[in-house]
Write a structure and sequence with these properties.
heterodimer, A: 20 strands, disordered N terminus, B: mainly alpha, 74% helix
């Protein structure tokens, strides 16, 4: 399919958010937000509910004004521009389709406001309904559509004005898991076809990781980290990000001694493990260190890898959950439960499958773990 | 064996409607085709004299003036009730505002009309204020004309329009207005193109709840109206109480009932298509 906008038109959609603060009365909702969103980027605002991500989206849409700070779209100050004058359109969480208008008229609504010619309206609405694969339902009313179809109408309607930025406010949260996944892939392909900047608000880390170019993780009115999905997953800025994005094992311990590029950490409840000294650490520092469950191996015999490179611990399988494409092992070592995810590449070819209550070796490469907090 | 309880359950309603609705109308219908008794009441003789008397130019003139008063009062009411109900639905003090709307009902309807006489009368509050302010040097005659009737009617039936409009607007999803604004609509356009069509059922109810009682009203024109504001209701009262021509009163009543029914049906037909789509939405929501 041909791109919906010519390549020259794609230079719009550069958004700069500068020192944005928002208070509702004495209640702070956003604290000094600075973000720069590049043209054509798929940018996600990720955070638990109440972190201020929806308020930030509403400020970008023009439904709220920041208490302090400014917004610049393609170098124009839009901080106090009315929402109907901004080249920004929104896909609402509740879809907000007009119940008294048919699918066609819902999508045509922005064009009718501009008093476009009937022929132009017909052509454009057809084009955008094609994009969201809804051409078979033009005459239906919102009440007759399924959740996924409503969502597609909302997307077509928001795109028809050819905005510089498309805002998506938890657009998939009301759909079931399978459909959510399908629409997510469609959203990604619509993003590719239109070349519009997408700002996607979600509390679902999986959604954010799978489609975003960059993610801003928010918590309690501030942005904690901005980065690509892999940066955020592999090198989270702090404990909250590490825990919020994916699952992880956390060790809290005291540095026993520093030996060049490695250090020995005495972990509460486990014992001694080796860590990399990529952060500036000294003897007796208290620190939090984490390793992702899929990076830990689980074997019934000792691995024959050089012992300087790995941490090996011995424990018992406390719980085993088979989920089809992977197994989740919960291995008890002293009082600590290790989460270990093992992908089934060749399930039946494993000579000795690990069973419940087996004694196992748990090991990982030292450079796969990372220090998240030093105090 | 399955018994059909439905008929038993609906019997009270059926009896109620028959006794208080069907029977009275049947009596009126019967009286309108009977001969007038000399001393009032009716003789049991068939006659269409009451229908012939309808073509009296005076009655026709009053009929037109009644329709004019009713339409004007209804228009004023809806135009006042819409913003009021909108404001109430979006306010934080819904319950308190609702109370303010309901409080006037605690005072008798006639007493409230007398209050208007006290305000608008020749020695009334309004004239006194205007005299004190030096805006006029003589008492102005506010009472006893068509517009006073229209204004007092509007005052009397305003709550009947505010309440149904409030309950429809309260259910309206205001994020739709944000969506319209987001898609490029001005504030006014968003209200005209999105809010109004979606609260159409409420507007229909408001119009019916005000137009019907206004068109049959006789107390307001009697108390604050003049010779130009006599309404059909006054003629009916006059025929029953003074002239004692019961067949004529019956035939006028029937024509009034038929005319207002036709008007209501026309109005409902005009607003139906929009209401239908909304009904679909509600069914879906259920």
């Amino acid at each position: 399919m041909k791109p919906l906008r010519s390549v020259d038109a794609v230079n719009g959609g550069h958004l700069k958010i500068e020192n944005v603060n928002k208070n509702f009365g004495t209640f702070k909702v956003l604290d000094n937000i600075n973000l720069e969103i590049k043209p054509g980027e798929f940018f996600s605002l990720l955070g638990p509910s109440g972190c201020g991500k929806t308020t930030l989206l509403r400020i970008i849409a023009g439904f709220e004004a920041p208490s302090v700070g400014g917004l610049f779209l393609d170098n124009n100050d839009i901080t106090y521009l009315l929402s109907n004058k901004r080249h920004v359109n929104t896909v609402f969480q509740s879809y907000a389709l007009f119940p008294h208008l048919s699918v066609f008229e819902n999508v045509a609504f922005p064009l009718r406001l501009k008093k476009e010619k009937e022929s132009v309206i017909k052509e454009k609405v057809g084009k955008y309904l094609d994009l969201v694969q809804l051409n078979a339902h033009v005459k239906k009313y919102p009440a007759q559509l399924s959740g996924g179809q409503k969502q597609r109408v909302a997307i077509a309607r928001a795109l028809i004005n050819e905005p510089s930025i498309l805002l998506l406010d938890e657009p998939l949260s009301a759909l079931d898991a399978k459909l959510r996944h399908k629409l997510l892939i469609e959203l990604d392909s619509i993003h590719d076809k239109t070349g519009i900047t997408f700002i996607f608000v979600t509390h679902d880390q999986q959604e954010a990781l799978s489609v975003s170019d960059r993610i801003a993780v928010m918590k309690d009115v501030v942005v904690l980290q901005v980065g690509s999905p892999s940066e955020i997953y592999e090198t989270p800025a702090d404990m909250f990000v590490a825990n919020f994005i994916g699952e992880t094992n956390v060790f809290v311990g005291t540095v026993k001694e520093v030996l060049g590029d490695q250090a020995i950490l005495t972990v509460d409840g486990i014992g001694e493990i080796k860590i990399c000294t990529e952060k500036d650490i000294k003897k007796d520092d208290r620190l939090k260190c984490t390793i992702r469950p899929e990076k830990i191996r689980i074997t019934s015999s000792l691995p024959d890898t050089k012992s300087e490179e790995i941490n090996v611990l011995n424990g018992k399988v406390d719980e085993l959950i088979y989920t089809g494409f992977q197994s989740r092992y919960y291995v008890k070592i002293n009082n600590f439960i290790f989460k270990i995810f093992k992908q089934h590449v060749k399930y039946f070819m494993d000579e000795t499958p690990i069973k419940w209550k087996d004694d196992v070796y748990v090991w990982w490469y030292v450079d796969d773990e990372f220090i998240v907090e030093v105090n | 064996m399955k018994k059909n309880y439905g008929q038993i359950y609906t019997a009270p309603l059926l009896i109620w409607i028959t006794v208080f609705f069907v029977v009275p109308i049947a009596i009126i219908l019967m009286f309108s085709f009977l001969k007038k008794d000399v001393h009032g009441g009716v003789e049991l003789k068939f006659s269409i004299a009451a229908y012939k008397a309808l073509f009296n130019p005076y009655i026709i003139k009053v009929a037109f003036s009644t329709i004019f008063i009713s339409i004007m009062a209804t228009l004023i009411i809806v135009f006042l009730a819409l913003p009021t109900a909108y404001y109430m639905a979006r306010s934080k003090f819904k319950d308190f505002l609702m109370l303010l709307i309901i409080i006037p009902f605690w005072t008798n309807f006639l007493i409230r009309i007398y209050a208007w006489i006290a305000i608008l009368g020749n020695n009334g509050i309004l004239n006194n204020i205007l005299l004190k302010l030096g805006l006029t040097d003589h008492n102005i005659q506010f009472l006893y004309n068509q517009w006073t009737v229209i204004i007092v009617m509007a005052y009397t039936y305003l709550p009947f329009a505010i309440l149904p409009l409030f309950s429809t607007i309260e259910k309206f999803d205001f994020s739709l207005l944000e969506a319209a604004r987001d898609l490029g609509a001005t504030k006014t356009k968003a209200i005209l193109k999105i809010l109004l069509p979606n609260v159409m059922p409420g507007i229909t109810t408001a119009v019916l709840f005000t137009f019907i009682p206004v068109i049959g009203n006789y107390a307001v024109p009697q108390l604050v109206g003049g010779s130009d504001s006599i309404m059909i209701g006054n003629i009916i009262t006059h025929e029953i109480m003074k002239t004692r021509n019961w067949p004529l009163a019956s035939s006028i009543s029937l024509v009034l009932t038929v005319l207002s029914t036709i008007g209501v049906m026309l109005f409902m037909y005009m607003t139906r298509s929009k209401t239908d789509n909304l009904r679909k939405v509600r069914e879906d929501a259920v």
